[in-house]
């Protein structure tokens, strides 16, 4: 799967940027673009040097392939000859050489977890890592029928001792329903923390608990209706998934376990999971930005937490392209609009169309009724960071406004401590300002909210602020409602904007704990 990172991905302060210590793109030679790599992988050229054979690779063999002209890397058990890809890698050759002749899974997860490498490097696949002999399991355990809680021995061994307690699950039934209960052993679990997909009587339920992922993956023993119900009992950390039987018969067992069932692993080690969503509508917001509405499958429960994003996946010229986007609400002014579509079944995106891009023109060409693959939520922002905050400052440039939409809605509806929330919105021209009318109406409607627009290339009629992010602009903007009020700042935009903004905020004596940089 080919992935085109946006200019501001990963964002400063994100796990990817922190882990990679400020890793940035390296200028590529002419003829070494993404499309050039696509053409090379389709040319029929032997990129592995093995003439189409797949081999089992031992650790000893892997270690010997550690040069630029002979570089093998292991990612999640698969070994790739990345030497042909060296000159096409946006992060440069040195970045790839950090994992030369070794298992690069941890490095990959830190820097590129969002990249689906299997398709992008499929023509470079050498084979799998040779398996070490495993200790035989008790044969009786292998024959156990899945029926409620599994023994603790089947919980993955990768759980860190200092991590959260391992969840468990059970199930019970009535004449017409089956309820699966997840005991997360963590309070304050909510519906945002759980993603459930039901397809062809296969149930996949993922609960995100702190920085870990707990997965239930079951082939159900009987057919169920496609509609189901999910509820979270926050004060006891319990999640119920209620399935409706197609036939009112008694189930002797829940079903059989599928891949990674009952696993509890760090979220960064869990692969991305996609489901196909249907395009319901798209409308112009500015001259180059559209509001897309996608409908989730009826058999999916997915609510994107505030400040998190998903990945959209499309097939472009035969290759799969993935891009990260932050969902937004349908409108900033829900009170002024009649609800057209039921909540929690639709996801909205504000997306700028780049005429010379690979992904967004293809997205813009989709017809109503076409499908887009959407991943489960990702991101490291936690709304707990906003607890007791009195002054919330939002700095956005261009489509860096999108993460601010749900933060703004959350602040005005759920933060009892909030005194003031202020948005400084940077754009080139007035025509580029997303939802300008809505923002101005919201400021009139709610006195706790202020918005300031800053243009870098205004017309002669513009009477507002001008320029780029600067100490002068920020010093005036970042005025607290009280002298010692508790503050938090969010920033998002192109990488230079975000980097410079964070540097200036530090110069103004705001701490790292008071700043969050979003992915644009």
Automatic annotation (TrEMBL):
Q: Write down the Pfam families for this protein, in alphabetical order.
A: CS, Cyt-b5, FAD_binding_6, NAD_binding_1
Which intervals hold domain CS? 164-255
Which PROSITE patterns does the record match to this protein? CS, CYTOCHROME_B5_1, CYTOCHROME_B5_2, FAD_FR
Keywords associated with the record = Endoplasmic reticulum, FAD, Flavoprotein, Heme, Iron, Metal-binding, NAD, Oxidoreductase
The main location is endoplasmic reticulum
Disordered: where is this region? 1-25
Identify one Gene Ontology CC term for this UniProt entry.
endoplasmic reticulum
Q: Which EC number(s) are documented for this chain?
A: 1.6.2.2
Location(s) in or outside the cell: Endoplasmic reticulum
Name of the featured protein:
Cytochrome b5 reductase 4
């Amino acid at each position: 799967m080919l992935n085109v990172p946006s200019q501001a991905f990963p964002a400063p302060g994100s796990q990817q940027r922190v882990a990679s210590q400020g890793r940035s793109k390296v200028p590529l030679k002419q003829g070494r673009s993404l499309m050039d790599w696509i053409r090379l992988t389709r040319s029929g050229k032997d990129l592995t040097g093995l003439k189409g054979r797949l081999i089992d690779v031992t650790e000893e063999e892997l270690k010997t392939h550690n040069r630029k002209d002979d570089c093998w890397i292991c990612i999640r058990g698969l070994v790739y000859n990345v030497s042909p890809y060296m000159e096409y890698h946006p992060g440069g050759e040195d970045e790839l050489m950090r994992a030369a002749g070794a298992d690069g899974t941890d490095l990959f997860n830190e820097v590129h977890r969002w990249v689906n490498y299997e398709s992008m490097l499929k023509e470079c696949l050498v084979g799998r890592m040779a398996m070490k002999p495993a200790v035989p399991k008790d044969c009786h355990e292998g024959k156990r029928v899945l029926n409620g809680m599994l023994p603790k021995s089947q919980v993955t061994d990768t759980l860190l001792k200092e991590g959260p307690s391992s969840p468990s699950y059970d199930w019970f039934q009535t004449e017409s329903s089956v309820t699966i209960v997840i005991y997360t052993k963590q309070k304050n679990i909510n519906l945002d923390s759980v993603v459930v997909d039901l397809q062809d009587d296969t149930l996949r339920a993922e609960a995100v608990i702190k920085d870990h992922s707990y997965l239930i993956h079951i082939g159900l023993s009987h057919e169920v209706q496609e509609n189901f119900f999910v509820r979270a009992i926050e004060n006891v950390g319990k999640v119920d998934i209620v399935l409706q039987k197609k036939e009112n018969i008694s189930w002797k067992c829940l079903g059989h376990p599928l891949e990674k069932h009952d696993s509890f692993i760090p979220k960064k080690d869990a692969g991305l999971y996609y489901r196909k969503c249907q395009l319901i509508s798209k409308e112009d917001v500015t001259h180059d930005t559209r509001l897309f509405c996608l409908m989730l499958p009826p058999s999916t429960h997915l609510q994107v937490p505030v400040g998190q994003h998903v990945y959209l996946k499309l097939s472009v010229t035969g290759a799969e392209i993935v891009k990260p986007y932050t969902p937004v609400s349908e409108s900033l002014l829900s009170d002024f609009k009649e609800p057209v579509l039921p909540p929690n079944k639709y996801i909205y995106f504000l997306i700028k169309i780049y005429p010379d891009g690979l992904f967004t023109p293809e997205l813009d060409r989709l017809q109503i009724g076409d499908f887009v693959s959407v991943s489960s939520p990702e991101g490291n922002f936690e709304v707990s960071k906003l607890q007791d905050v009195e002054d919330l400052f939002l700095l956005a440039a261009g489509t860096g406004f999108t993460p601010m939409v749900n933060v703004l809605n959350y602040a005005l509806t759920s933060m009892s401590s909030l005194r003031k929330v202020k948005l400084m919105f940077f754009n080139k021209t007035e025509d580029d300002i997303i939802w300008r009318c809505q923002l101005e109406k919201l400021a009139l409607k709610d006195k706790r909210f202020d918005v300031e627009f800053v243009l870098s290339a205004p017309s002669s009629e513009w009477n507002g602020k001008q320029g780029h992010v600067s100490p002068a602009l920020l010093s005036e903007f970042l005025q607290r409602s009280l002298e010692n009020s508790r503050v938090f700042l969010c920033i998002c935009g192109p990488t230079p904007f975000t980097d410079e903004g964070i540097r200036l905020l530090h110069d103004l004596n705001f701490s790292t704990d008071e700043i969050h940089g979003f992915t644009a």
